[in-house]
């Protein structure tokens, strides 16, 4: 056997040897070796060659008069196109090699797509043999499952940078096949570990990657890890504070990474205020925390912040953004009613399962039943399905509206099965000239599947709604399925979205794009948090409290030195994320630091920017700093990186300058009270940066004040300078 292995590898037949060995090991194939079928071989061959991809003949218009269904999702249409269209000239059963399909695909006659396969390739041979057999359309057992070998457990703890994968198809008849030569392999990170068409994965460095195999309508992934061992590596992180740290640090150790040290009290103080309630601490709050010697003062501060009114307003803002609450989608009065509902929900720490159910099953007058506003935004069954999937499942299903998802196991039936739950939602117009609307159910309305042209029964990703009476609310069945314990979508997506808001990056990132080709950076962490979320009744406060108390959240933002053989640290939370504050946070922080509140048209004095009900408010500062207009159900509407226009806006903003120089502001008040210079300077730093000045800063400030002709103006200059620092504008 050892000699056989050596000869197989040295002859370049490694993949075929491994395939044969695995087939012998797992199960014999019951499929005849000479059988070639259009639906299992030819469609797969066209997919392998790329003929039916979106950039080629799989586009809606096709190419040069030849159109295939995307990724072969409609084999009936493809058969008719290849065999019967154009007088059958695309296939030549007398001399198969002269078939136009093969001549162009192999590049023997001009083809805009170039050479897609060669005569020695399995894909070419499958098509050629099928044509030689007379282009039969035999319908045999359906494909039921696809697997990649080696199994995930066998792939753990890798010691070599190269791995051969084998794809095996399972059919309803019980037959199994090695379909590695006809499957399409893709890597989640081609820069780290590209995969060849034959399923060979080659790691360039230490890291993790997910490899996806697609054969016909089945898609399956496998997670692989490679570590280039560093004998000198030693983990230098802090002791874990809770289950989060246990999973995060374990992953870092496995990939030879080290976390940053725990952040100082000054950094933690400012960060946790901004992340928990969206606001800065007052100078007195900052001083009290920094001077405290209580061992658990961070945990106690977290508890106090989660009980404040600003917590509910700030986290309601996050939900209002993705639920698209704005006057253009809901109405002027409606958006305020909806916002108050969100604030109450967060303040009372209601289970997110209840919140989701109320939104998805809302009925009645939208002014008095604000949860029903979900349907004022998502006004068609398709829009409701897309919004529900993205918000509460973290899945983007839009691609499956026109065809099966090109890269994921989401079918067109999944899409319209989801839409069918919302088919009966209808509206009555504004009542008595007001801007409300009535959401009600109209029995008998259905969603039609575009391929079958039949009414599509409601089904949630393979789970049918079950028997339904004419008056049953299908949406209740969907909510039951979605919020049931153990649902593989709901808890992980909510946990991941919350993690993103606190850490700056999702465990799955982007947060609303759960798919096999976008795997979580730490599956064990995501599962542990989801389990804990369920155990705590799907409430946000315990989840947020756990995250904020972790050492992972409290790490410093400077990247620590890493081993040259370590994985890329960006995905593994080795340090705190640095990101731009939101438009509302910056404006509120300026108001808090200067002591001069902002005014908003139509709102009472003292209203903070994080408390605004609508999205696209007409306010120059908020517009300059990209407050979203709420026209998308994703977190991508906010810009995280500072821009030159924003920098110029801060430097030249008349409103900001007037706040700093205001006679009723903090600086002017302290001067009038006759406070000493050292005390005032410290107060300015505490109010603006939530820390005391360093010795070097104190020296520079004293020199500036001594050289200034106007004492109050010199202090105002100091605060204005601090407001323009990255330290003020960034969360770090």
Spatial separation of the terminal alpha carbons: 58 Å
Envelope shape: globular
Biggest β-sheet strands, sense, barrel: 3 strands, antiparallel
Number of helices: 29
Strand sequence of the main sheet, in spatial order? Answer: 1-3-4
Q: What structural category do the secondary elements indicate?
A: mainly alpha
Strand content: 5-15%
Low-confidence stretches: 1-32, 151-157
Provide the gyration radius in Å. Answer: 30 Å
Helix content: 40-55%
Mean pLDDT: 88
Number of strands: 15
Outline the structure in words:
The protein has 732 residues and is mostly helical. It contains 29 helices and 15 strands. 41% of the residues lie in helices and 8% in strands. The strands form six sheets. A three-stranded antiparallel beta sheet has the order 1-3-4. A three-stranded antiparallel beta sheet has the order 5-7-8. Strands 9-11-10 form a three-stranded antiparallel beta sheet, with no helix packed on it. The longest helix has 16 residues, at 332-347. Helix 15 (381-392) crosses helix 16 (412-419) and helix 24 (654-661) crosses helix 28 (711-723).
Structural topology:
Blueprint: H1 2-10, H2 14-26, H3 38-49, H4 75-83, H5 100-105, H6 122-132, E1 143-149, E2 162-164, E3 166-171, E4 176-178, E5 184-187, E6 200-202, E7 207-215, E8 218-226, H7 243-254, H8 265-277, H9 283-291, H10 297-306, H11 309-322, H12 332-347, H13 352-360, E9 364-365, H14 374-377, H15 381-392, H16 412-419, E10 425-428, E11 438-441, E12 459-460, E13 463-464, H17 474-483, H18 490-503, H19 523-535, H20 540-548, E14 579-580, H21 583-594, H22 620-624, H23 644-652, H24 654-661, H25 666-672, H26 677-689, H27 695-707, H28 711-723, H29 726-729, E15 730-731
Helix pairs in contact: 1-2, 3-6, 7-19, 8-10, 9-26, 11-12, 13-17, 15-16, 18-19, 18-20, 21-26, 24-28, 26-28, 27-28
């Amino acid at each position: 056997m050892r000699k056989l292995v050596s000869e197989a590898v040295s002859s370049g037949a490694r993949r075929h040897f491994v395939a044969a060995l695995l087939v012998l090991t797992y199960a014999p194939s019951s499929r005849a070796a000479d059988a070639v079928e259009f639906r299992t071989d030819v469609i797969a061959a066209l997919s392998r060659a790329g003929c039916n991809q979106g950039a080629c003949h799989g586009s809606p218009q096709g190419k040069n008069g030849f159109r295939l269904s995307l990724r072969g999702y409609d084999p009936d249409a493809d058969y008719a196109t290849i065999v019967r269209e154009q007088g059958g000239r695309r296939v030549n059963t007398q001399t198969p090699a002269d078939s136009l399909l093969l001549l162009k695909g192999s590049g023997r006659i001009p083809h805009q797509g170039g050479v897609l396969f060669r005569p020695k390739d399995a894909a070419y041979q499958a098509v050629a043999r099928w044509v030689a057999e007379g282009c039969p359309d035999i319908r045999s057992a359906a494909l039921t499952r696809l697997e990649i070998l080696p199994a995930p457990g066998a792939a753990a703890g890798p010691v070599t940078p190269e791995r051969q994968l084998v794809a095996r198809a399972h059919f309803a008849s019980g037959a199994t096949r090695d379909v590695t030569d006809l499957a399409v392999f893709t890597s989640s990170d081609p820069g780290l570990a590209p995969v060849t068409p034959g399923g060979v994965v080659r790691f360039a460095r230490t890291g993790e990657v997910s490899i996806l195999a697609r054969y016909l309508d089945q898609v399956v992934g496998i997670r692989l890890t490679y570590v280039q061992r560093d004998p000198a590596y030693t983990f230098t992180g802090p002791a874990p504070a809770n289950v989060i740290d246990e999973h995060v640090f374990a992953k870092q150790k496995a990939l030879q990474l080290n976390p940053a040290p725990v952040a100082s009290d000054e950094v933690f103080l400012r960060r946790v205020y901004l992340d928990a309630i969206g606001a800065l601490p007052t100078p007195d709050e900052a001083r009290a925390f920094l001077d405290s010697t209580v061992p658990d003062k961070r945990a106690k501060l977290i508890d106090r912040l989660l009980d404040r009114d600003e917590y509910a307003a700030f986290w309601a803002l996050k939900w209002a953004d993705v639920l698209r609450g704005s006057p253009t989608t809901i109405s002027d009065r409606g958006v305020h009613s909806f916002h108050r509902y969100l604030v109450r929900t967060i303040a009372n720490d209601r289970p997110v399962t209840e919140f989701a159910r109320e939104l998805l099953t809302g009925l009645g007058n939208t002014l008095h039943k604000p949860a029903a506003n979900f349907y004022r935004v998502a006004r068609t069954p398709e829009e409701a399905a897309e919004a529900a999937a993205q918000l509460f499942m973290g899945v983007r299903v839009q691609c499956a509206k026109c065809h099966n998802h090109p890269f994921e196991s989401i079918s067109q039936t999944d899409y319209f099965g989801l839409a069918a739950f919302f088919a009966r939602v209808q509206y009555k117009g504004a009542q008595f000239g007001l801007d409300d609307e009535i959401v009600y159910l109209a029995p008998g309305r259905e969603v039609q599947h575009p391929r079958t042209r039949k009414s599509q029964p409601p089904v949630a990703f393979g789970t049918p709604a079950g028997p339904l009476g004419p008056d049953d609310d299908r949406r209740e069945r969907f909510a039951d399925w979605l919020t049931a314990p153990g649902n593989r979508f709901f808890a992980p997506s909510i946990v991941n979205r919350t993690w993103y808001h606190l850490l700056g990056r999702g465990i799955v990132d982007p947060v609303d794009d759960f798919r096999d080709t976008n795997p979580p950076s730490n599956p064990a962490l995501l599962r542990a948090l989801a389990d804990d979320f369920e155990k705590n009744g799907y409430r946000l406060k315990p989840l947020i409290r756990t995250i904020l108390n972790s050492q992972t959240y409290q790490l410093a933002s400077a990247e620590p030195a890493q081993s040259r053989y370590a994985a890329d640290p960006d995905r593994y939370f080795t340090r705190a994320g640095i990101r731009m504050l939101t438009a509302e946070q910056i404006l509120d922080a300026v108001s808090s630091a200067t002591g001069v509140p902002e005014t908003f048209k139509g709102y009472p004095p003292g209203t903070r920017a994080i408390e605004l009900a609508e999205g696209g408010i007409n306010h120059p500062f908020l517009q300059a700093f990209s407050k979203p207009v709420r026209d998308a159900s994703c977190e991508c509407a906010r810009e995280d990186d500072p821009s030159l226009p924003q920098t110029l806006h801060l430097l030249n903003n008349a409103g900001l300058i007037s706040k700093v120089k205001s006679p009723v502001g903090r600086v002017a008040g302290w001067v009038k009270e006759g406070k000493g210079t050292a005390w005032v300077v410290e107060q300015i730093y505490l109010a603006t940066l939530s820390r005391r000045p360093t010795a070097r800063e104190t020296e520079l400030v004293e020199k500036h004040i001594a050289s200034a002709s106007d004492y109050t103006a010199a202090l105002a200059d100091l605060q204005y300078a601090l407001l323009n620092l990255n330290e003020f504008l960034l969360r770090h």
